[in-house]
Amino acid sequence: MNDVGAANEVAAAPVRRWPWYAGVGVLTAGGLGLRIATVYGRPNRAPGGDAYTYHYSANLLASGHGFINPWLFYGAHHSLPSAAFPPLFILLLSMTSVVGLKTFFVHRIWSCVIGAAAIPICAYTGKEIGGRRVGLLAAFLVTVYPNIWMNDELAMSEALTPVVIALVLLAAYRFWRRPRALTAAALGVSLALSALARDETALLAVLVVPLALLARRVRLQWRVALIGIAAAGFVVLVGPWVGFNMARFDKPTFISNGLGVTLASANCPATYNGVNAGYWSYQCALATPGLKPIQDQSVADSIARTHALKFVGAHLGELPRVELDREGRAFGFFRPLQQIQLDSLIETRPLHWAQVGLGMYYFLVLASIPGIVSLRRRRMPIYPLLAIGLDVVISVAVTFGQTRYRIAFEVVLVLMAAVGIDASVRALTSRLRPGPEPDAQLPPPGAGREPEPEPEPERGLAAPALP
Q: 349: which of 39, 50, 122, 180 lies 20 to 30 Å off by Cα?
């Protein structure tokens, strides 16, 4: 190719790319508009339950009170430290409170903005996994999937979960392609943000080990070094919060101390038998002996956890059935219609959209099957996706079954379904197209992504070959 032809090709490359970015932008704007419309559809909602804690904790933090229990502050005028939830979502909500925008309505709008950020991040993650068309499909599904956008106007941390989970997957696959110090640090930071948003996702930190140990064309000593770099990125962000908690509570507290009350609400006669088997009961938590209205939160957590574990120990024979009930509720295969009715009654999720979300969930489950097959055929690692699903399974097994508890898995489901839909369309069009059948598999890893310059080898680290 002559110099003029090469120059023309380089000049034309951005023109070929801009429709993808424009598509992602349109989907993001549409998704944000849809989410904000849900707030205006129910403008007079008052905060309750977890949303009350997030909303007023953000306002108290912005007012200089620190991380304290809002229920006790407003109800009994006591200022007691609180780590009932991880801090990241509260910190984000406090950004509007700092500038004087403290109403629950504003926090719901801001929560929708946070939730809509998952659309472009999922687009980039999908593009990293399967190319531009997969990225656009993933962005479209996140835009319209009710089980994701319904969480945003509730002003609870599930609005943030798709953002951090998509970031973890994006960082994981970029590290898999280019196992370098920078991508290792980015992976550690993304895992830290995830843990500070949802404490149960701290288990995902183990992802670093297989990704680093299986890195291609990297010497063993550098694989260990990359694990250390990722761990350092994780500790730098999570460490200060853990140290802060250790200093202000009577008992050791790491990311949060709300597990005890959760266990007490999930392990009692009402949740082991009857119509609410596998669910939770706040009355059970309130009936925990030894709990006091005003009490160090770490002490209350220890008392409730001990009580719950004693109950579990006395009912081990029933536990396998209860665990199946919990997983069935969370993943839509045990009393799904009753579960979305409970979601509507207790968490005020719109019942009609919950029904649509349930039907779409089953469709995405089916669509993800060819996605898994296609990824395996291309020798793409699927354990980052499976690890997130396993994390949800473990957290549900420890606590109880609830639709919003599978929100991290919903992100995985959207990405796998996007790959599956794209692979199915390719296979169908190849059969309908006249002439010899082309290979109907997905493009090789990295196809559809912008070309990247070959990295300079680090000392002791051979530059990995791009797929």
A: 122
